[in-house]
Amino acid sequence: MDQDQYKVPETGAPQSMVPVTTTVINIRGDMVVPDHIVWSLFNTVFMNWCCLGIVAFAYSVKARDRKMVGDLTGAQSFASTARCFNISALVVGIILGIISIVLLGMAYTATYGALLQAMQERRRYH
Question: Among 62, 103, 91, 92, which residue's Cα sits nearest to residue 79?
Fold first, then answer.
């Protein structure tokens, strides 16, 4: 194969004589700011202990409004607050849910034991 066909022809002046200029273009892409609105809605409906879910939902709506207006700093601030309230609501909801299950289990076993004892005493008197 002939190597001349793969060579790139040099055009223009030598590099040392041409001034080098650079152009920097800052392209601001759309930053994705999560507003956590679905998580807040879930916590409002299912885990609304101490109204933390409602507060988280309110901050999520504020974050979405700020994002629609174009205030990304405000949207990030409200989204961060909503995230904190969502985490708090979730943790409190899980802890109180576990405590409720344990207390219901203890109440069930106590009631069952009392019923068994009452039935055994009733058999003794008949």
Answer: 62
